[in-house]
């Protein structure tokens, strides 16, 4: 099912490339401003769709497979295009999984939690909302989302080669200006980084 989403994304990219190739071969003049405007409208539409609570309702394979596949495809597009301004919504949904609970733990984290995978691909733009989520949420109350958030921060920073060290530095900086409840949450996140 996930392969279908990748194939869909590849098909969309190939169609776009074919269009630009056709336009270039036939010397079609294209208004760059119009293309950028259409792109922005498409991104805004995708943001609204993802921010809608209806997009997430029953979006799992055992309830509505078509809806789950559509949501995963949209998340894949967001990740590949690195659409900004939607990170806060995605962080709140980081533990979304289209799979039944009995299937959890038997696949790669990126496949099991597609929002986690999307945030990891969004690079540094996702760091601030993830750190804020870690600060404001107790590990006890929201274990899976907090663990995924911490791992996501490490994975994003790891693209530079020093994931754990950079993630720890960032959380230590946040620790200095945090309130007491936030300090407890950040310290737990630092312990989690050290334990891996």
Structure description:
- The chain has helices at residues 2-25, 32-51, 53-56, 65-81, 87-92, 109-112, 114-121, 127-136, 143-158, 163-176, 180-195.
- It has 196 residues and is mainly alpha-helical.
- It has one domain (2-195).
- Helix 1 crosses helix 4, helix 4 packs parallel to helix 7 (114-121) and helix 9 (143-158) packs across helix 10 (163-176).
- The longest helix is centred in the N-terminal third of the chain and has 24 residues, at 2-25.
- The two termini are 30 Å apart.
- The model has no long low-confidence stretch (mean pLDDT 82).
Descriptive key words:
196 residues; mainly alpha
Q: Could you give the count of β-strands? A: 0
Q: Output the number of helix runs.
A: 11
Q: How far from one another are the termini?
A: 30 Å
The structural class is mainly alpha
Major sheet description: none
Radius of gyration: 19 Å
Shape estimate: globular
Topology:
Elements: H1 2-25, H2 32-51, H3 53-56, H4 65-81, H5 87-92, H6 109-112, H7 114-121, H8 127-136, H9 143-158, H10 163-176, H11 180-195
Helix pairs in contact: 1-4, 4-7, 7-9, 8-9, 9-10, 10-11
Task: Sum this structure up briefly.
The chain is mainly α and 196 residues long.
């Amino acid at each position: 099912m996930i392969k279908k989403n990748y194939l869909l994304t590849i098909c969309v990219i190939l169609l776009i490339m074919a269009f630009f190739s056709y336009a270039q071969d036939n010397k079609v003049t294209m208004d760059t401003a119009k293309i950028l405007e259409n792109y922005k409208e498409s991104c805004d539409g995708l943001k609204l769709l993802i921010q809608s609570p209806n997009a997430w309702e029953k979006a799992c394979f055992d309830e509505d497979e078509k809806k789950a596949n559509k949501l995963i495809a949209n998340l894949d597009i967001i990740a590949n295009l690195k659409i900004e301004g939607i990170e806060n919504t995605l962080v709140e949904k980081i533990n979304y999984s289209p799979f039944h609970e009995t299937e959890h733990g038997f696949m790669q984290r990126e496949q099991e939690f597609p929002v986690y995978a999307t945030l990891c691909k969004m690079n540094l733009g996702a760091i601030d909302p993830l750190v804020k989520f870690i600060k404001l949420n107790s590990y006890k109350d929201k274990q899976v989302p907090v663990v995924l958030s911490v791992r996501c921060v490490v994975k994003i920073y790891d693209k530079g080669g020093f994931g754990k060290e950079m993630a720890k530095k960032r959380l230590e900086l946040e620790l200095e200006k945090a309130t007491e409840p936030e300090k407890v949450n950040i310290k737990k996140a630092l312990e989690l980084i050290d334990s891996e």
